[in-house]
Every structure is written in C-alpha cells, then in structure tokens.
Amino acid sequence: MSHPRISFTNRWMFERVMLDEEVCRQFIRCVLGIDAAHIEYLNAEQVLEPAIESRGVRMDVYVREGHRVYDIEMQAAAEPLLAHRFRYYQSSLDGATLVPGRDYDELPESFIVFLCAYDPFDQNLPLYTLERRCLEAPELSIDCKAHWLALNAHAWSALPQGTLRDLLHYTQNGSLGSDPLVRRIDKIVAEANSDRKWVDKVFYCVSTIEENDARRARILERQALKKGLAEGHAKGLEQGLAEGRAKGLKQGLAEGRAEGRAEGRAEGRAEGRAEGAREAEERYSALIAHLVSAQRFDDLAAIASNTERRSALFEEFGL
Fold first, then answer.
1. SS3 letters across the chain
2. For residue 46, what pLDDT is reported?
3. Per the confidence metrics, is the pTM higher than 0.70?
C-alpha cells in the first residue's frame, strides 16, 4: 500500500530528523544560541521504532549535553492548553533527572522547545520565551534554570535573514531555500520516506492519533460551551432588563410605577436570563457538533475567542 510523503512536521519524522546529531546541535545553536559539544540521546529507541505509548509522557527529542537537558517537541496541530503541556513536560524532566536523595541544586538546566506549525498564543510573534516572573515585582529575576520556548512557524517572515527564519519557513510550507541546516533536514526527510518499512509503521501510528484529536475536541468543546454559557447569561440579563423595564412601565400605569418596576424587572430578568442562556447554549452546541463532525479543530479553537470567526461560522452553518 502506498502512502503520501511524510513531512517534517510529522512528529515521528521530526524525531527521526533530530536523531541526526549535527542537525540537533545546529537546531539548539540557532534557537538557543548554545554550542552543544556532545549530545546524548535519551530516547533514541522510541524514535527508530514508532509506537503509541499507553502511559507516561512521550518526549519527541530528549537529549542531554553536559549539565543541560533538552526536550524538543514538534506541535503540528493546535493545542488548546499548551501552557499546561509545558508544565507537565517540565515535571517529567525534573523527575527523571533528579536522583532521589539528591539536592535541588543538582537539577540540570533544562530547555523545553515547542516548534509549532501555528501561532500558539495568537500574538504573531515568531518566538515566545516564557520565563517565571513575580507579578508584584516584574523586574525580579526568578532564575530556576528552567526555560520554555515556543516557535511560531506562521510568523517566519518577521525574523531577519538567517537559519531560524529559513527553518520556520520550511516548517510552515516546506520551502527549501539555501540554508545548509534546512537542506540537510530535507535530505533526511527524503531518505526516511524511502524507508517503506518505517513509513508503514508511522502511518499505523498516525491512524491511532484520532484519540488525541478527540481529547483536543473535548477540551475545545468544554471551553466553547463555557464561553457560550457566559455570553448567554450576559445576553439574558440585558434582555431581561429591557423587557423588565417595558413590562414594569405597562404595569405601573395600571397598578403603580414602583410596584410595576420591581415586579417587571424581577420577572424580566428571570425569563430573559433563562431564555438567553438556553438559546446561546443550543446555538453553541449545534456549532460545536458541526465543527467536530467536520474535524475542523482549528475553527473549534477559534470560536472561544474570535467573535468575528464565530459569527462567520454561525452564518456558514445557518445557525
């Protein structure tokens, strides 16, 4: 059975490419500015034998050099809780590197890098460097030697000419360019695609990724529903106030202004809030069902915060 070409953004292809020590060293240099003399791979076996784990955390590229450890991840699909993933991977790194009985100062310096094929934080930045800070004293440096970085391939053009710009451009659309690192990566991708036995294993694993997609869909659905309920309550309150005023005025003419306003507002708030929340929830649920059925997970992620996109999708599905 023939398969389409596996791209660099495929997680197993990314792992295989990064198993090339020179590529891994150059990646670390261009992203972090660190010259790694010798790299020790801590997960090479799982890279060469693609498989879906039943438990634990699966790090794409987990390497060590000197007193530093690196976890380098490819994130091709939109992840609604990327910050939570950073936190989870950090705990896994620390738990794996600090031997029981050792002191905290023996924790190695760690770097977690997510190479994203989308904008993970919607700020149109090519690089997000996430460090700990104190809200009360932003100038205070909390140097715990744990560093989180997210690369946004969509914003490659915002970078100056150089290896990182070309790497993000290649990640976004496969544009080769002339950079030696990108050309070396593309050569490994081509060689890996000619390894049909390995390719078959990758596609078998890809077929099971639907479970991860379903997990993302559940998270997005809960977020969208929560957003819809909040908007429904707000709309219901607004309508309730308007209807309450109108009804209160009408009753006030017959029974007295004071009693009419109080009674009308109370009844209007209750009726308006309930009706608004119910209509909004039904409308959101219908939209979510359409998007999940169509596997449009990017749109599912967008409706929670992008009001224009949400309105366009309501119109598209006639809701």
1. CCCCCCCCCCHHHHHHHHCCHHHHHHHHHHHHCCCCCCCEECCHHHHHCCCCCCCCCCCCEEEEECCEEEEEEEECCCCCCHHHHHHHHHHHHHHHHCCCCCCHHHCCEEEEEEEECCCCCCCCCCEEEECCECCCCCCCECCCCEEEEEEEHHHHHHCCCCHHHHHHHHHHHCCCCCCHHHHHHHHHHHHHHCCHHHHHHHHHHHCCCHHHHHHHHHHHHHHHHHHHHHHHHHHHHHHHHHHHHHHHHHHHHHHCHHHHHHHHHHHHHHHHHHHHHHHHHHHHHHHHHHHHHCCCHHHHHHCCCCHHHHHHHHHHCCC
2. 52
3. no
